[in-house]
Here is the input.
Amino acid sequence: MRLALFQPDIPQNVGACIRLSACFGVELHVIEPTGFTFDDRAMKRAALDYGPLSHMTRHADWDQFVAHRPAGRLVLLTTKGATPLPDFEFQRDDILLFGKESAGAPDYVHAVADARVVVPLRPEARSLNLSVTAGIALWEGLRQTGHFDAG
Here is the structure.
């Protein structure tokens, strides 16, 4: 299971995803350009000292990500999703992709996705924070694929 962020705008979300990567032992792919520099204090503060435990790869743009992406289904988490999260069956090598906070994922990203998933919310709510959604979806994917089974 992997996380991928498409052109993130908010450094704190990347920092929180660095922590998710470190705490759950999953890869994090950041698809640039970003709306900040990687020396941003806000990102470092959100990541705390988890950076060295994270497995982060930066991709210069979407084309580079597509050319070098790891094997596995591309699962786009989107408010325009077709499958509610509780109904989606994850696979161990899925790449959970999250769109840009300010604009979501463009049509060409939707077109490449193998699946589109939505986290169900109350009808009057617009969306969750990206890193919150990433944590919910990642945890569910890891749970379904046996990541938390005692061995």
